[in-house]
Amino acid sequence: MHTNIDTLFENLWQNYLSVTPSAEKVHRLLGEGDTLINDHVAFRTFNIEKVNLDKLAAHFLALGYEEKGQYDFEQKKLKAKHFEHADTTKPKVFISELLVEAFSETTQNIIRNMVAQVADNASQQESFLYSGPHWQVTTEEYETLLAESEYAAWMAAWGYRANHFTVSINHMQHYHELAAVNQALKDAGFVLNTSGGEIKGGQEVFLAQSSTMADKIDVQFKDAVKTIPSCFYEFAQRYELPNGKIYTGFVAASADKIFESTNVAN
Ligand code: NI
Fold first, then answer.
1. Do residues 121 and 98 make contact, with C-beta atoms less than 8 angstroms apart?
2. Residues with a beta carbon under 5 angstroms from ion ligand 1
3. Pairwise CA distance, residues 101 & 164, whole Å
4. Cα–Cα distance for residue pair 249/69, rounded to 1 Å
5. Which of 190, 23, 32, 164 has the alpha carbon at shortest distance from 95?
6. What is the pLDDT of residue 2?
7. How far, in Å, is the centroid of ligand 1 from the Cα of 189?
8. Residue 141: what pLDDT?
9. What is the 119 CA–ligand 1 centroid distance (Å)?
10. Distance from the CA of 255 to the center of ligand 1, in angstroms?
11. What is the 181 CA–ligand 1 centroid distance (Å)?
């Protein structure tokens, strides 16, 4: 059963706010007298068939989205695709998947054991996209994953949900430049991700991006509670291509640094 696009994003947003309290504050700060439009919403998963990128993407394809780009992140051992809707006010969707077989046997075993706990057809439900973790790991398993892949550790703790929402600077009325938004955020006390510089990309690659560092939230692991990074908020400004059309793709080198917004420190 598929809801409509707006209902799905509202459900994703409420779920995201429940673990990202700062997002509500950012939304209020930037949204004052302005309707915020999302440039994109991002999701993470593993490339294990039961839960892979295509399983998540199917829900968006069913709502009229189309695949528009593919990306490789060799160092982080990830692949990603992005999807767009014909209605350009609907957020683009960026879905990545971790290449599980590229990791140590220990890490693979922890991940495969997690995914084994996902019910067989669970991913066919649209609500799977904001269903959180379908497993529980120990703090030791979390640390083991973290040592090899921040992404794997994040998935172990947070499971299925929007990893970030992204404000579209192009659609804002009170701000026209990403740098001004960054300044407003810093003035209000928000911490930005500085990995690869505060602004990743720029007019030369037709996309400039920045993000807050993820909130830190208490998570109940199998054996103990641990305070760890949850989700973050991103900001994107897109530029015109030589053909006069606004660039709608993603820039792998920038996204690579945006992934680090869920690092403990940067
Ligand atoms: Ni993003």
1. no
2. 42, 234
3. 26
4. 7
5. 164
6. 57
7. 21
8. 98
9. 28
10. 7
11. 16
The list of the chain residues with pLDDT below 50 reads: 1, 266
**How much of the chain is in helix, strand and coil states, percent to nearest 5?**
40, 25, 35
d(CA 264, CA 220): 17
Q: Which own/partner contact pairs does 124-129 have at CB distance under 8 Å and 24+ positions apart? A: 124/55, 124/58, 126/1, 126/2, 126/3, 126/8, 126/59, 127/11, 128/55, 128/56, 128/59, 128/160, 129/8, 129/12, 129/43, 129/56, 129/59, 129/160, 129/161, 129/162
Contact, 178 vs 168, CB < 8 A? Answer: no
d(CA 169, CA 188): 18
Rounded distance, CA 13 to CA 8, Å? 9
Q: 57 is written with which tokens?
A: 């993407």
State the amino acid at position 154 in one-letter form: W
Query: If you measure from the C-alpha of residue 81 to the centroid of ligand 1, how many angstroms do you get, rounded to a whole number?
Result: 12
What's the pLDDT score for residue 264?
A: 80
